[in-house]
Amino acid sequence: MASQKIGLGESVSMAVGGMVGGGIFAVLGVVAVTAGTLAWLAFVVAGIIALSAGYSFVRLGYLSENGDGPLTYIERFTGSTNLAGMVGWTFVVGYVGTMAMYAFAFGGYFVELVGVESLAGIPARPLVSATVVAAFVSLNALGAHASGRTEDALVGLKILILLLFGFGGLYYGFTRGEIRSGIAAFGTGPVVAAALSFVAFEGWELLLFDRDSIRNPDETIRTAIYLSIVGVTGLYVIVAVVTTNLVSTTVIQQNPDTALAMAAKPFLGQIGFALISVAALFSTGSAINATLFSSSRLLDSMVSEEYLPAQLGGDDGHEPVRALVVIGVLTVGFTVFGNLDGISSFASLAFIVIFGGASYLAFRTRHVGATTGSTIVPAIGSLGAAATVGALLWHLYTNQGSVFWTVVIIVVVVVTVELLYFERKPIEDDLSAVESSVEDVV
Question: Taking phi first (over 0 means left), then psi (-120 to 50 degrees means alpha), and beta for anything else, what does residue 115 get?
């Protein structure tokens, strides 16, 4: 695929695979516990915000002359190299959180499927999660990657299994009168859950970093983003309706990382549980691999743009081993020592901030260029992102204090490191000036 550019079909497959890859298997339980039978509405809200962000990135790409990618858009329209670099850091940190969530879910499904809770006295879930991350870091470092056709086949298989689960569950539920919309219980839950579910819509933006390998990138990327987000939102709605109506909230609370497999039991029995679990292992595993591949190359390109220290870069023409190792170590730390609520909250917040910021930038530049951009779409994205971030932080602060402070500490550490790095030259200049003054006095 490196020598031949891809078209619309493969671009849609890449975007859908990036989103469905592991997000719905990992985050569905957390969303369902928060919103109950209105989990489907949470996915609709998150989908609308994601679609607004998709429009906004497409609009910024149209206005950008060179169209190199999101970081270029931000630098051009804000005039701040530091801000563009900080957004790049946020992308990478968000991908680390996402992979940690995938690895957490992989470990959870593996443990449930094989029935082993510990190995040599060590809890099996974190051990399995760390092992799968290490395995994919090693494979990527050795240059082993799935072909485009293989990825397309895996994406198709995942979608097929989820559709069978969704429509099979709807038929089973409707024939027994068990399907409810949940509208009667409407409250703030869907808004909070929308923020938590946003990580399940992460993935389509990878097309923006891969323009050079796409035919007619402006039109293809725009169409692929719109089709993939709308299609995936519909899929998530069906899966959420089935899960929250066929499985009690208590069962979901007890099994948040394997909620999808638990929902298959009522109408497919143990075979359904095993089928969904195996699909989840393939999905989360391939999602770790694909995200690791893309994020390591993003990090490596950021080194070449001096957004990151040169020590993290790889040798020309070779795999970015240092970037892979750094990302892998951070991912293992998150997935071993974190919990699913904290990991999913952190990853979702990272992408809501990025995509909300892109919507705001598109809103601010709506009158730039030969044609006027939409006012309503980026406004919805900006306000929606702000509302969901506020709702999520308030929910965590009032209901999950430990998760709230964990997320806050991580954010403060990341932002502090970013600021210190990007302000290093002025600090170095000030120190040099002080040293010179001291030498003159002496």
Answer: left
Closest to 391 (Cα-Cα) out of 374, 375, 404, 406:
404
Contact 343, 403 (CB under 8 A): no
Give Cβ neighbours of residue 91 (< 8 Å, ≥ 6 apart).
Answer: 70, 295, 298, 350, 354
List alpha helices for 247-258, DSSP H.
Answer: 249-254
Give the pTM. Answer: 0.85
Strands (E), 97-181: 118-119, 122-123
> What type of residue sits at position 220?
T
Name the more confident of 438 and 380: 380
Can you tell me the distance from the alpha carbon of 49 to that of 25, in angstroms, rounded to the nearest whole number?
Answer: 21
CA distance linking residue 328 with residue 231, whole number of Å = 31
Query: What one-character-per-residue DSSP string does 238-266 give?
Result: HHHHHHHHHS-HHHHHH-GGGHHHHHHHH
The number of CA neighbours under 13 Å toward the Cβ of 405 is 2
Q: Closest by alpha carbon to 190, among 376, 392, 339, 19? A: 392
Distance of CA 10 to the CA centre of its chain: 20
CA–CA separation, 315 vs 349, rounded Å? 33
Indicate the helix (H) or strand (E) that contains 437.
Answer: helix 424-441
- In this structure, are residues 236 and 24 in contact, taking their beta carbons and an 8 Å threshold? yes
CA distance 67 to 354: 18
C-alpha–C-alpha distance, residues 286 and 153, integer Å: 12
Q: 113 near 277, Cβ under 8 Å?
A: yes
Report whether 215 contacts 236 (CB < 8 A). no
**What is the end-to-end Cα distance of the chain in Å, rounded?**
65
CA distance 275 to 280: 9
On the question of pLDDT at 398 being above 70, the answer is yes
Quick: pLDDT tens for 303-355: 777 777 766 665 555 667 888 888 899 999 989 988 887 888 888 888 999 99
